[in-house]
């Protein structure tokens, strides 16, 4: 029997590889002769780099970069494909978790550190960049990231703009003569799971700004600043980014990537599934096992279990999902390729106990699933 195990992480508890290992341990008790392929995956959000490094046996790079407010933080990114691909999460350098709640102000925060991570990866000679958006503390359109890579953003007097989203309101000219030329020579894929435009009622500032500390007044100020950013990009670079779906992702980082690089915005789950070659791995599988911390109505919207099931069903494989808990609307996943869902919590317990006992509970549940399947096929 050949079994492919392709789960996401259980947030705040286990990495995707740890989940996969626990599932294997449980099933191996019933099927000791089975072949197990562990393929930790993610949907492009938190944990994506960890999953890809684990799945592709990659390595980590770590360096001090500037955080959202200009202080130094330690950021890391992954290198896979024998050094050819860098996998970067912008939250590592520019994430909301790096800013204390009392200091969150998207008028001031900058994505500069994300650009430093990209620059470091380019120094290693990579030919492909995978950039995960999400979890950002910034609303600067990716301007800080681009400044770290050599672009210059000037006011009407020819002076460099300061950091932060508010400064874009003073933008008069963009100079890309010193933008790192290596950006044009690498393939860039951006994991983007929203279709928000840059500006307006569904734009970066209105939808995501309040999560980053923006008041109603700040939202209007930031939206006007991003409108100015889009106008000058179109004026100087001849690229219209304002209405492109996804341009508003991560405080407008989507627009920055589209306007200044050859980046392609793709759903995170699609990028990850391609990167781990899941479609090839499931061809000879007798069973595909996936899962995540919670399966509910939102799982069908680009989450890992449904992404795995979509690939598995193309090869006509049965799919079982193992999750930490089941929420409202979980039945919707049965219409998206998952054949059965099992949660792992055996009794009433605290959240802390769930986290502490997660691996044991997953292993036990996986063993029970294998026994059930074995009973039905023997």
From TrEMBL:
Keywords of the record: Kinase, Transferase
Family statement drawn from the similarity comment of this UniProt entry: Belongs to the glycerate kinase type-1 family.
Molecular functions (GO terms): glycerate kinase activity
UniProt-listed PANTHER family: GLYCERATE KINASE
Source lineage: Bacteria, Pseudomonadati, Pseudomonadota, Gammaproteobacteria, Alteromonadales
Gene: glxK
Domain of life the protein comes from: Bacteria
Protein name: Glycerate kinase
GO biological process, one term: organic acid phosphorylation
Signal peptide: none
UniProt-listed Pfam families: Gly_kinase
């Amino acid at each position: 029997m050949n079994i492919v195990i392709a789960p996401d992480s259980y947030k705040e508890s286990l990495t995707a590889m740890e989940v996969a290992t626990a599932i294997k341990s449980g099933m191996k008790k019933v099927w000791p002769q089975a072949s197990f392929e562990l393929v930790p995956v993610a949907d492009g959000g938190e944990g994506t780099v960890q999953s890809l490094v684990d799945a592709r046996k990659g390595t980590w790079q770590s360096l001090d970069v500037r955080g959202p407010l200009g202080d130094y933080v330690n950021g890391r990114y992954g290198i896979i494909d024998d050094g050819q691909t860098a996998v970067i999460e912008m939250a590592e350098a520019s994430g909301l978790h790096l800013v204390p709640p009392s200091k969150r102000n998207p008028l001031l925060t900058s994505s500069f550190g994300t650009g430093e991570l990209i620059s470091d990866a380019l120094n290693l000679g990579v030919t492909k960049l995978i950039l995960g958006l999400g979890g950002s503390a910034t609303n600067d359109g990716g301007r800080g990231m681009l400044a770290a890579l050599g672009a210059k953003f000037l006011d009407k007097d020819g002076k460099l703009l300061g950091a932060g989203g508010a400064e874009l309101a003073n933008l008069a000219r963009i100079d890309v003569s010193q933008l790192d030329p290596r950006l044009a020579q690498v393939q860039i894929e951006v994991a983007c799971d929203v279709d928000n435009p840059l500006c307006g009622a569904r734009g970066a500032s209105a939808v995501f700004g309040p999560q980053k500390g923006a008041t109603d007044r700040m939202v209007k100020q930031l939206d006007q600043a991003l409108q100015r950013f889009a106008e000058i990009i179109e004026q100087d670079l001849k690229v219209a980014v304002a209405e492109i779906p996804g341009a508003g992702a991560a405080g407008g980082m989507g627009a920055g990537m589209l306007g200044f690089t050859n980046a392609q915005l793709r759903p995170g789950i699609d990028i990850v599934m391609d990167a781990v070659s899941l479609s090839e791995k499931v061809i000879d599988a007798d069973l595909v096992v996936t899962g995540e911390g919670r399966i509910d109505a939102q799982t069908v919207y680009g989450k890992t279990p449904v992404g795995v099931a979509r690939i598995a069903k193309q090869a006509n494989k049965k799919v079982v999902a193992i999750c930490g808990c089941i929420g409202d609307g979980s039945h919707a996943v049965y219409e998206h390729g998952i054949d059965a869902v099992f949660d792992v919590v055996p009794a009433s317990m605290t959240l802390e106990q769930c986290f502490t006992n997660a691996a044991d509970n997953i292993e036990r549940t996986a063993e029970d699933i294998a026994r059930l399947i074995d009973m039905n096929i023997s």
